[in-house]
Design goal:
There is one protein chain. The protein is of the alpha/beta class and 266 residues long. Helix content is 43%, strand content 20%. The chain is built from 10 helices and 9 strands. Strands 3-2-1-4-5-9-6 form a 7-stranded mixed beta sheet. A two-stranded antiparallel sheet has the order 7-8. Helix 6 crosses helix 10. The protein starts with a helix and ends with a strand.
């Protein structure tokens, strides 16, 4: 897998990701995942593929001073931004496929929109389950299909037309586990047979088309793929192609549903 497939961004992109992507896409899901995880005061929580830490920060609020939260990510740029936002959380560099923790070390393991990018998804799921104590809860969120996310389907179409499939694949990658059957089969293959999958509605929101394009390119894996002239061309074309997603006040909004997978360790 290349950096595009693994969702790897540079440090500058990580800062843009925190400033723009979090409120646009991820903030509403942190509270939802924390709620499904049934987080309580005093619990030990691991956030795998924590990114810049929005879910880990929500978890820390839930477990309080008597609990503890560890955020793990393979991307140093993401972790640097996360540490600057919340120094009380234990931020660790590491891979989901080889978690550096003992068996049963956590009461709850969560992962929000990271599973799609793991190099060995089955192994990552097994590892997340391994570090859970008996009775512990695993909660994993992934995006629904691109077909059910019309704004990004249109963005993929635009990138493919203007540039190439490699550029389009940078936006396709987050949606590669959107099929519920494929998702269930993945967890079954990893040895988790009793899983619950709930599909919840969500909404992507950006202040404008310009902000949307800037966030998607400069705050994601395409930051190093498009030069300034290509970015200017994309922005010009986007003002027409993405107009259907502009609301009356000039902001952008479109459906962005996700699946939340839950499993309890026997």
């Amino acid at each position: 897998m290349g950096d595009t497939d693994r969702g790897q961004v540079n440090h500058s992109a990580a800062e843009i990701y925190e400033t723009f992507f979090i409120p646009a896409l991820f903030q509403e899901w942190a509270a939802r995942v924390a709620d499904v995880a049934q987080l309580q005061a005093g619990q030990r929580v691991l956030d795998v593929a924590c990114g810049t830490g929005i879910l880990a920060r929500s978890a820390a609020e839930c477990v309080g001073a008597s609990g503890s939260v560890v955020g793990l990510d393979v991307n140093d740029g993401m972790l640097a931004v996360a540490a600057a936002k919340a120094s009380q959380i234990d931020w660790r560099h590491g891979q989901a496929e080889a978690l550096p923790f003992d068996d049963g070390a956590f009461d709850v393991v969560v992962s929000q929109f990271g599973l799609m990018f793991f190099e060995d998804r089955q192994q990552a799921i097994r590892e997340m389950f391994r570090v859970l104590r008996p009775g512990g809860r695993l909660v994993v969120a992934v995006w629904d299909t691109l077909d059910n996310t019309p704004g990004y389907a249109a963005m993929v179409e635009l990138l493919a037309r203007l540039f190439d499939e490699a550029a389009a694949n940078g936006i396709r990658a987050p949606y590669n586990l959107g099929d519920v059957g494929t998702l269930r089969d993945l967890f079954s293959a990893a040895g988790l047979l009793d899983v619950q999958i709930a599909t919840l509605k969500g909404t992507a929101r950006f202040p404008s088309i310009e902000a949307w394009v800037y966030t998607d390119i400069k705050g994601w894996v395409l930051a190093d793929m498009l030069d300034d002239d290509q970015f200017a061309l994309l922005l010009y074309e986007a003002r027409q192609h993405l107009q259907p997603f502009v609301t009356a006040d000039g902001s952008v909004a479109f459906d962005a549903p996700a699946h939340i997978v839950t499993a309890v360790k026997a």
